[in-house]
């Protein structure tokens, strides 16, 4: 069931104001870099983009370089501030599951670190698919359950914060009903407990990177040890 929407809204308004509006870390920067690369592959076409769970709207301005952007999030106070600063993006606050963005209205949906905070994940994926045109793309990032549970100490959820991480297999299963998965991989290795904490330590990795660049990080990501799961999935052209 999860927490009431009003409680979730309060949590995310406070969290974004105190955290994401103040600071971005390597996890966010890497997610943005991957999505940016995917969008550049779309060519010069002006895209209709829906950013679901735009949070502090830190990526919305950059997304607008690729087309017309609509951003939505539960954090109404945050979006009100963002609308003043990013007028070229249309922001719509509210519970995504109850909002109507039209059927087959978008070429691309971007969704970063939202899935794990959704109570009914299959229904969420179904709704995302409904807003995409046939042949449209979902570009999604979500926390990697395997890495977070096994190799990281994570504070318990706050009041109003839902937490349902998924692993690679669970993510693929959720998407398979409505999408063809084009790419699914992990990025940003991170660990703060166990042996992987040593392997991921900045003290160890700094001289290694100086010698071999990011090849070790790429290897860790290929092994599925990234904090984030990134997926690019396509809605079939034949889908109604």
TrEMBL record:
One of the record's GO molecular function terms: methyltransferase activity
CDD domains for the chain: AdoMet_MTases
InterPro entries: SAM-dependent_MTases_sf
SUPFAM superfamilies cross-referenced by the UniProt entry: S-adenosyl-L-methionine-dependent methyltransferases
Keywords: Methyltransferase, Transferase
One GO process term, biological-process aspect: methylation
Superkingdom: Bacteria
Pfam families: Methyltransf_23
Name listed for the protein in its UniProt record: 2-polyprenyl-3-methyl-5-hydroxy-6-metoxy-1, 4-benzoquinol methylase
Source organism per UniProt: Phyllobacterium myrsinacearum
UniProt lineage: Bacteria, Pseudomonadati, Pseudomonadota, Alphaproteobacteria, Hyphomicrobiales
């Amino acid at each position: 069931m999860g927490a009431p929407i009003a409680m979730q809204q309060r949590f995310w308004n406070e969290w974004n104001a105190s955290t994401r509006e103040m600071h971005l870390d390597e996890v966010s920067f890497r997610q943005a870099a991957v999505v940016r690369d995917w969008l550049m592959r779309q060519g010069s076409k002006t895209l209709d983009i829906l950013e679901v769970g735009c949070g502090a709207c830190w990526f919305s301005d950059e997304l607008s370089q690729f087309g017309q952007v609509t951003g939505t999030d539960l954090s109404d106070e945050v979006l009100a501030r963002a609308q003043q600063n990013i007028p070229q993006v249309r922001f719509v606050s509210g519970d995504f599951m109850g909002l109507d963005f039209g059927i087959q209205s978008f070429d691309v949906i971007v969704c970063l670190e939202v899935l794990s905070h959704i109570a009914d994940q299959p229904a969420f994926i179904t709704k995302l698919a409904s807003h995409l045109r046939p042949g449209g793309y979902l570009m999604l990032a979500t926390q990697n359950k395997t890495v977070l549970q096994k190799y990281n100490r994570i504070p318990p959820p706050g009041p109003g914060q839902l937490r349902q991480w998924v692993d690679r297999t669970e993510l693929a299963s959720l998407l398979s009903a409505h999408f063809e998965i084009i790419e699914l991989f992990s990025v940003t290795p991170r660990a703060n407990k166990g042996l992987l904490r040593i392997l991921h330590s900045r003290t160890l990795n700094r001289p290694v990177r100086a010698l071999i660049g990011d090849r070790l990080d790429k290897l860790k990501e290929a092994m599925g040890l990234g904090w984030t799961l990134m997926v690019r999935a396509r809605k079939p052209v034949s889908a109604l």
